[in-house]
Amino acid sequence: MATRQLQQQITVDDQPVLVIRSARRTRTVSADQVAGTLRLRVPLRLSQREVEKHARAFQKKLSQRAARKPRSDADLLERARALSTRYLDGVPQPESVNWSAQQHQRWGSTTSTTGTIRLSWRLREMPVWVQDSVLVHELAHLIEPGHGPRFKALTAKYPRTAEADAFLAGVSWADHHSP
Fold this sequence. Notes:
The protein is α/β, with parallel strands linked by helices. The protein is about 40% helix and about 25% strand.
């Protein structure tokens, strides 16, 4: 006997969520993450409001877990490619993305001729959404070298760009004004 399942792609707080509704499932909700997308398994009859509530709870849990464990260079490359696909139509494809202990003034840098992106090691302890914003910024440089209107339009596709810029401006201010 086949179990009835329905799949639905939704967006919760600007994040993609694949909802898998199952007639077999009666009470429990489970989640995992596949290629940057939250996959939520829920009972068939769970309301949309409850689905969104569970999605937010799991997003928060996954974000907290990710914040505790610094990303490796391989994780950065995978994340950069996922962000490229999601926000920049998959056009920029970096060859490598690495943490750099030699960047003290910049948050990131890009060598467009080699497709290499470097992020300051200081970002490792910052929230994941700040790291993602810097990654999108550097990915945009693989398309547009300057900081003109086209570049700004590309970086604005990431929904937390302004918030991350403000966060980093605060960190920079504190760095320059601490004793």
